[in-house]
Amino acid sequence: MTRIVAGRFGGRSLQVPPKGTRPTSDRVREAIFSRLEHLDALDGARVLDLYAGSGALGLEAASRGAREVVLVDANRRAADVARRNVSTLGAQGEVRVVADSAERFAAGAAPADGASGRGFDVVFLDPPYDLAEDALAAVLGHLAAPGVLADRAVLVVERSTRSPEPAWPAGLVAFARKDYGETAVHYAEPGSGA
Questions:
Q1: What is the dihedral sign for C-alpha 19, 28, 66, 190?
Q2: Is 4 within 8 Å of 63 (Cβ atoms)?
Q3: Residues 6+ apart with CB under 8 A from 108
Q4: Distance of CA 114 to CAs 111, 121, 147, Å?
Q5: What is the pLDDT of residues 149-169, one digit of tens each?
Q6: Residue 194 confidence (pLDDT) above 50
Q7: In whole angstroms, what is the distance from residue 167 CA to residue 120 CA?
Q8: b/e string for 119-145 if b means 16 or more Cβ within 10 A?
Q9: Domains plus CATH for the chain?
Q10: What's residue 114's pLDDT?
């Protein structure tokens, strides 16, 4: 069973898609959110949850103070489950579900020419462990485009410990990695890396 760990929805159960997703364990989610809270990244944040599945990461962010959350999953069943979870929690005003591929959504996330807006403060990427490294690199490349991320954004990428370090594009710099059994959590932020 997947549940919200803490915050205003703490303890509430979430539905999960019957197949095709790998929910992040409570232990790993708690560790991720402890780090994000230490970084003061959640209060009032705009959050993007790519490969969202049930929406557990994005909904946990909403529970802990995020102002706006976008859940994105290409699997229509997963998107439907995420919508039900949003509705059950009563979070429709702050959490939006998009049935689209992570790459297509990320490619369109940059503001239109001349438009100014606040980029995402936190981005979760929890793709299937068998997602090809070049496919993940393409999504990260889109996220590094000007205007997609806020200046002090935090990216959280969950992969298998057997996977290589993500190929961080110019504009994103890794600053931490933590392993939890089979799960490796990578953290990155905007920067030049110089």
A1: negative
A2: yes
A3: none
A4: 8, 20, 10
A5: 999 999 999 999 999 999 999
A6: no
A7: 20
A8: bbbbbbbbbeeeeeeeebebbbbbbbb
A9: 2-190 (3.40.50.150)
A10: 45
